[in-house]
Amino acid sequence: MTRFFISTTLALAAVHAGAADFTSSAAGTTAADFLNLGVGARAAAMGGAYSAVADDATALYWNPAGLTRVLDRSATVMHAAYIASSYFDYGAYAQNFGSYGALGLGVQYFSAGSVNETDAAFNPIGTVTPYDLAASIGYAYKFDSLGGISVGVTGKYIESKLADSAKTEALDAGLLSPAYLDGNLRLAITMRNLGRAIKYDQTPEQLPLVFGAGGAYRITSNWLVALDVDAPKNNNPYANIGTEYLLVGGKSWRFAGRAGYSSQTAQGITGFTGASIGIGIGYEGMNVDYAFVPYGSVGTAQRISLTYNF
Description:
Blueprint: H1 2-14, H2 41-45, H3 59-62, E1 73-81, E2 87-96, E3 102-111, E4 115-118, E5 124-128, E6 131-143, E7 149-161, E8 165-176, E9 185-195, E10 198-200, E11 203-205, E12 210-218, E13 223-232, E14 238-249, E15 253-262, H4 263-266, E16 275-283, E17 286-294, E18 300-309
Antiparallel strand pairs: 1-2, 1-18, 2-3, 3-6, 4-5, 6-7, 7-8, 8-9, 9-12, 10-11, 12-13, 13-14, 14-15, 15-16, 16-17, 17-18
């Protein structure tokens, strides 16, 4: 099984890699970068180290193979306040059909807020509200005959509006290992945003393709640590690390403290950046999570998400 996991990983990484420049010299060469903002306050608080952690509806984004970890049904909604008047919203639903696999549906929406519009002579002619939208559908299946490895794939419709509108389609894929070391360790491989170029006014721009590998280890029943390493097409590789500590109150209440660090933002932003913190409160199947992410001199982002597992 381990040999299968490694060989499949290498094959996945080889797809499309020959056409990509995974260094800082490629910065600014892709469009629709909202696709890599990340979803869910729990994941954001853990620095984005989530490909081997996701076990709810957000798995559709982080690693579609993780949809098989949804116990029955899961729904998530998120709102993130970004710089100035921009914001990012997300909603997803996932359901596990047992031996038939698991299905997920999701929508991402990013608004840049109102932007002043001018004519060729720079005279103001009003305002425009640029936005980005992605609608996703994913499927995952757990292969018990291969030791419990899960494989998932997501198809996405992407629409972006600046001065002009553009549309395209993309594909995500992921692998998730069974639990090793007495059920405490999981490994993951992901690929996001493989698709056709998106065209603004007939000018094609590549999507922000990302290959990733991650792992999650449960030190104790209440303490989780995770690491993801991502290689984006439009910049240098970066690492995300995160941790979560869970406190259980009574039979139904749960309280979580989280922290993380991503070297991605540290590559191009001055000031205190890269770190993240957050908290979570859960009661039975309901979880409310909050994350605070500073972006140095640029500003801060705050996320709140509600997840219901039922």
